[in-house]
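User: Hi! Is it possible to get a structure for several chains at once, not just one? Here's what I have:
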Amino acid sequence: MPVDQHSDPFVPLDPFEEQLSAGLRQAGGVFETDRAALVTAGALKGRRRLLRRRAAVVGGAASLALVGLGGALLLPGGGSAHQDGAEVGSSTPSATSTPAPAPVSGDDLIRTLEKLLPHGKFSKAEARGTDEPPAPYVHLVYDDGKGAAAVGVSLARVEPGSDEARQATECPGKAFAHYDACSTTRLPDASVVMVLQGYEYPDRRVDTKWWSAELVTPTGQHVSVSEWNAAAEKDSPVTRAEPPLSADRLRKLAAASAWRDAIDSMPEDTAEPTAQPTGSDTAVAVPIAPMLRSLLPKRKFTVSEDSGDDSGFGYLVVDDGMGKSLVQVNVQGDMSDVAGDLFGSGAKTLPDGTKVAVHQEPSEKGGAGAVMWTVDTLRSDGRRVVISELNSGAPHDDATRRTPALSIEELRAIALSPKWWQ
Amino acid sequence: MRQRRADEYAEFAAARAGHLYRSACLLTAGDTHLAEDLVQETLGRLYVSWGRVSRVGNPAGYAQTVLARTFLAHQRKRSSTERATDVLPDLPDERAGQDMPLRLTLLEALGRLPAKDRAVVVLRYWEDRSIEETARAMNASSAAVRTRCVRVLGRLRELLGEDLSDYARS
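Assistant: Yes, the chains can be modeled jointly so their relative placement is included. Here is the combined structure:
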């Protein structure tokens, strides 16, 4: 039932609206789930978020303490070089010319993970290096011969001794009861590691197991390793009874020194996702469809459908005589906060800093033979234009032609047109 | 989180999770996996700011606002390639008003609305929010919400027909 009875007294509902309300209550009321599991997962997410936020704050405020003449020592939290004995990385106060560690690339992280895993096959590796915001990670599919499994490692800093550092490695309490096992171990070097053997889906409608190890060192390096008994976190069938690494192996993987070296090479502003302003696509007012029409290549097109004067998102169905193509455009302001999500290693960066990614793939929702071509562009100030087209006139239709009407080059020219921003 | 606060949060989350989930199912037009993710994300956000949230007058309403914004933020990150449902053709006429239960037809119709329209429908007609409150939840002006509301009602009338009582009540 609705939480708040805040109906506007000056706007009485008409019969259709009354029926709509009743219909929504009927439609919404049938959805049920395992609430306790949802609460558990939500709280775990909250804990991780708290940790990330703390890492971001610490990262953003980290100070550089000069060590001797040449070396720089990065401190979490901005204290003195000796605060809590928290020297980070291999630098020591006596090292007068220790250079700042070189960044560790995504490829290096992939190689590190492959080396640390037992013999097996690797695929679908992806990673972000330590100098790529918002934070480094490596993710791949590992098969030891008994079934493909997703394995991921992410790296961050936390403030040593903080509540967040403690909470990261504390097994969830009785309010968070949905897991098979959880243990916390103190390693000889005083690092603390928690291994949690739980489930990806709180209601366990699919038995995807999610096991993770969270390790925090005395100096605040935070290594988080996850593995699943499926080739992907979600929407992927279970391939084996359990994830490939035992709790003990998971613990050892998290404790590998290579991860700590990588964390030490993270520049001070790497982990700052929350400091980014959140954007709003409402700031962009240009009507999409008319602009798109004006930017079509100088060939003959018939336009059979048009989204009108909406800004933000619009589309045209065009036909150059060879069959219909649905062309859709999104124009958004201030999307720099999600650049990392949208533009992977395949993206190109133009001299002015604009990122361009091209995708040519079968249409996810399309009918027989349908393909979708997309050019996604993000200017250095965060403004984004995405244009995509199908070789059919509607998302679920079969292909009406072999390829869409506009070439990738033409899509690119449209997306990069300065007119979107005039 | 201190113990008392943690207990309060756990109690609140347990009490509200079901409703949040049902709202999320409507926002996602029946995509229960996404709905679950959105509720987890919402509860995660509330967890982080619980100290402040618990002091506001209406944490339940606040939670619903966070859910709506989380949903809109999620949709915003998706590219046009995933907004294809915005331009689906109308429901075939022969299905309207026949044996199709209203709830299924309604979910299907919601699935054909752009994200912001869906958020307006859910906040206005499921949450019973006023235009002003809907506008605040969506970070929009009330004029914009009013216009959107008129348009979306028109669209739903087109999709569902004028009289929803024609549908089977199962």
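Chain B has two domains: 1-77, 87-170. Chain B has a mean pLDDT of 79.

User: Great, thank you!
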